[in-house]
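Anyone up for a design puzzle?
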């Protein structure tokens, strides 16, 4: 919810039901460094090496 007034309790009412992973994702996706790394990854041809680098740097894991 970029652009949302963070002081508005109503705008974030769903966070009351959020789990730790949900809160972590909300924090991560707002991080300017993460956004830049993701943009770089999106511009390059995705390879397992660049994806692995992003996972290691940001501590990401994905279930399959």
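Challenge accepted. My sequence:
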């Amino acid at each position: 919810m970029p652009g949302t007034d963070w002081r508005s309790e109503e705008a974030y009412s769903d966070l009351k039901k959020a789990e730790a992973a949900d809160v972590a994702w909300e924090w991560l996706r707002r991080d300017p460094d993460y956004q830049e790394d993701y943009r770089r990854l999106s511009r390059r041809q995705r390879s397992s090496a660049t994806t692995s680098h992003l996972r290691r740097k940001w501590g990401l894991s994905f279930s399959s």
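A detail worth pointing out: The helical segments are 20-30, 32-43, 48-58.
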